[in-house]
Amino acid sequence: MRPPVPVPTLSRRAKLVIGVVAVLLVLFTVVGTLTNVYVDYLWFDETNYTEVFWTEIQTRALLFAVAGLATGGLVALAIHLAYRFRPTFRPMSLEQQNLERYRQSLEPRRKLVLTAVGVVLGLFAGFTAQGSWQTWLTFRNSTDFGRTDPEFGLDISFFVFDYPFYRLVLGFGFAIVLLALIGSLLTHYVFGGLRLQTPGQKLSGAARVQLSVLLGVFLALKSVAYWLDRYGTVYSGRGNVFTGASYTDVNALLPAKNILVFVAAICAIAFFANIFFRNTVLPAAALVLLLFSSLVIGVAFPAIMQQFVVRPSADQREAAYIERAIQSTRDAYDLSDVQFVDYGTDSGDDGAADDDSGEAGDDTGTDAGESTATPSPADLAGDAGTISNARLLDPNVLQPTFLARQQIRNVYGFPETLDIDRYTDANGVTQDYVVAVRELDSSALSGNQTNWINQHTVYTHGNGFVAAPANQVVSGEGGGEPNFTTGDLPTSGNIDVEQSRIYYGELLNVNGTDEYSVVGAPEGASPREFDRPQSGSEGQVNNTYDGEGGVSIGSFFRQLTYAIYYRERNFLLSGAVNDNSKVLYVRDPRDRVEKVAPYLQVDGDPYPAVVDGRVVWIVDAYTTSDAYPYSALQSLGEATTDSLTGAGTSALPNDQVNYVRNSVKATVDAGDGTVTLYAFEDDDPVLQTFMKAFPGTIEPASEISDELRSHFRYPEDLFKLQRDVLTQYHVDNPSDFYNANDFWQVPSDPTENTADNQPPYYVLSQRVGEPNSTFQLTSALNALNRENLSAYVSVSSDPETYGEMQVLQLPGNTQFRGPRQVFQSFNTNSEVRPDLTLFDSSSSQAVFGNLLTLPIGTSGLLYVEPLYVQGTAENSFPLLQKVLVNYGDRVGYGDTFAEALDQVFGDGAGDAAADSGTGGTPAPVPDPTTTPPSDPAGPSTEAPADEGGAGESPSLDAAVTDINDALSALAEAQRSGDFEGIGRAQADLQAAIEAYQAASGQSAPASPTG
Q: How far is CA 413 from CA 255, 396, 496, 506, 716, in A?
């Protein structure tokens, strides 16, 4: 027998050093954790959402304690019992001699080792369990859906709220039993209760009893698992093309699971019986029975049925189950009430594509039944609401223009993607606008602006609201620019803004780093926060924050807290921090809503609106679930990713969901950060469940003011998720669904030259069957794996019809061009191509705007795309120069939308356009990089011939000279890329032409600049 191996001992100094290091590590960890928790509490207290803070903390703590104590305690108890009933006599075989050294090493430290095992396992289990705090809250506060599943007749709430919790508890039960079994086996082996290599009895009586009990409990849990597996069939993917219980699941797997429930229960009883009968044959036979049954009944039988019964005629066998999946998926994604309209079926099927012009595009041949009829200008009068509101400003392109014209100071900025909203004037006329707020952009600070005092106490906020009508641009020197009807500093214009300071905004979270500000000053002290430039001078106006938001840090203890939290000593040393100081943090609207409502998914694109004179951020939030029976799972991240994701909008996380509702509309006051949650869909059972869990945190829908409601938009992320579902689940016939007949797909964005999805677009237009314009979110849908258009989806954002979704289904016997085909027809057009070559030069580049699809009449689709030109020099910005229009096989290309419409539909068709010159709105100027075309509707590029001979009329001579001078100036400005010079030259040219016509007695033609 070998002598026991001595355990090495540490010197007193080493023990002291290790102890000090351990204490410091624990101290720093505890202080850091407590500081984070306290700072969080102060933030929730400031926002009046401490109910959320305490409920989450208490629930996490409860689950941590229960799971930790259950796991650590029961496993430690099992190990203790194994040691307690160890055999007193162990035959000293070679095996036991080798184990003796471990026994002697463990014996003096037995309690310490046992405690350490229990604590470590308890901590792991506790940390795992506390992450499921929402599962416990929804189980505890579950609300019935009022609908039952078709297979088990249970309310949907069982699957959404109860089933996940039962699975969670069962999972922890299995983990505890397995850990206890492993711990008991090791303990019995080390202390002689289990002897693998010793002749004779392998198990002591105590070991046999304990292991039998643990295995019996394991099998009892397995019986429960088989029972729950029955309900899990509602999430089955065996049908491949649909989700939910399939023919095989219902007719083979469910009976198998019922049998296995009893087999597992019998096996558990056999192991419990082994406590008394001391016969290993019975439990061994039970295990073999369970294994054989699970393989034959639970695996082989369903596989055989699937292969030989279902697969040969799957479309028929699965028909009833596909119907369940279609209906449940539509219910889960709120698509049950979609209005489907057969569109483009009139004899005048003028929206169909005809590729006679030879322009690029797939499948654009003209079908036999296709009509080439085109609406007349009179016919278009019925769609005046669509034509007059056609959007010429692309919010995804114009950020550089907003910066150039409305930034004012370098400390200000605009989000990379601007927003679309609408406002109604005193006459009740609704207009859509491109809107943005002038935010503080801390990344633009430079030089001395970046020191701590300036960055955190002087430059604390942005200022101003900027808006430009989406269907017009200005003429004259600034031709092609947005018509800023609200802007400048102090903010002025047609939208009344009383409180324009922006302390909370999208630019205050830079690369995931929250930008905090310290605000407030003693009574009588001079304001120190930069507010805006002084009107009419080089000075500036300062301000002292007087809002309700922010956490007071007047006490030394709180200053110390934030000094630790931000690792910034200036909280303690700087004179800018005083008794009246507050710290503003978590300033991104999305972040604030996510923090006060962690149970919601927040839309990736908050947008600003002026409500009662104050700028507020409107944030859409969703209740979701991944446990709705028979509903198809969708990845939020994949479905909401498009060509604009990352450019001012954020895709949602890659969570899997199969149920979603836009149940909450949230607002964040841009001035004081007040967060208000409104129960927008208060009949949603998931929302009702969380309202029970967090009482008083969500306001009822009745509290939404009419003005606030008028700015609600149907959320983009929800729409993108729904249109993705609609590509398949619009099909009613189970056989067609199984065979993927008439499936659609989201088109790629042709303007970005990418495979990413085309984003949906907000437009103000008339829907089919409606007399007036409504604010809608729209998207085109192509045929599956083809570029032809198959459907057009729109959903209303108007308060009276909010959420009403309409799908225009195009006939399958004609080839309607999809977005990419239309874009190709623009690119290859004989008039467009030369200009694109000219625009894309060393001094400028062509920038295509959003390609809008607009239904016209009862059977046609009008495509509208603005074309901008942007200089390549630093700080250049895009200017609208051309408008492209497509209808059927006709392409219009003009300086204005009205001109392009006239080319497609005939003279007078563009009268309804906002830039027609008759609508009273400004219009874009001609192309700045080419001389104006000779056209009856515009001026000639050459000086008019003097019919009477040079010198017969001084006025004519002077006009001719002015025209030549303007043309020369225009050419020079084009060569140098001077856009302001181009605008001046164009204005001079127009004035000279008008002077010539007046002198010659001709009637002045319609101005190309509107």
A: 64, 15, 21, 10, 24
Phi, psi of 665 (to 5 degrees): -110, 130
The whole-angstrom separation of Cα 518 and Cα 460 is 8
Which candidate, 549, 542, 502, places its Cα nearest to that of 525? 542
The Cα 608–Cα 588 span in angstroms is: 12
Tell me the pLDDT band of 540, cut-offs 50, 70 and 90.
confident
CA-nearest of 829, 790, 832, 866 to 360 is 829
The dihedrals phi and psi of 530, each to the nearest 5 degrees, come to: -65, 125
* Amino acid 94: pLDDT: 62
The tokens describing 403, both together, are 């910066």
Residue 691, Cβ density class (10 Å: 0-12 exposed, 13-18 middle, ≥19 buried): buried
Residues 603 and 617: their CA atoms lie apart, in Å, by 12
The mean pLDDT value for 516-529 works out to: 87
**Strand runs (DSSP E) across 212-366, as ranges?**
339-342
Q: How far apart are CA 1009 and CA 527, in angstroms?
A: 47
pLDDT class for 926, splitting at 50, 70, 90? Answer: very low
Please tell me the distance from the alpha carbon of residue 640 to that of residue 779, in angstroms, as a whole number: 13
Distance of CA 636 to CAs 290, 588, 598, 603, Å?
40, 21, 17, 11
Tokens linked to 739 = 């065979």
- Please tell me the distance from the alpha carbon of residue 556 to that of residue 579, in angstroms, as a whole number: 9
Q: What is the pLDDT of residue 527?
A: 83
Helices (H) and strands (E) in the chain, counts: 31, 35
Phi, psi of 287 (to 5 degrees): -65, -40
Consecutive H or E run containing 99:
helix 94-106
d(CA 494, CA 826): 36
**What pTM was estimated for this model as a whole?**
0.84
349-401 pLDDT, tens digit per residue, is 344 444 333 333 333 333 333 334 677 776 677 677 888 889 999 999 999 99
Query: Are the CB atoms for 294 and 306 separated by under 8 Å?
Result: no
Say how far apart CA 299 and CA 771 lie, in whole Å.
60
Rounded to the nearest angstrom, the gap between the alpha carbon of residue 890 and the centroid of all alpha carbons in its chain is: 37
Distance CA 277, CA 405 (A): 91
CA atoms of 373 and 350, how far apart (whole Å):
5
Q: How does DSSP classify residue 77?
A: H
In this structure, the number of other CB atoms found within 10 A of the CB of residue 272 comes to 17
Confidence (pLDDT) at 369: 34
Q: Does residue 896 sit in helix, strand or coil?
A: coil
Residue 958 is predicted with a pLDDT of: 74
pLDDT at 975 over 60: no
pLDDT higher than 90, residue 227: yes
DSSP-derived secondary structure for 435-478 = EEE-EE-GGG--GGGGSHHIIIIIS--EE-EEEEETT-B--GGG
- Name the H helices within 107-155: 110-130, 133-140
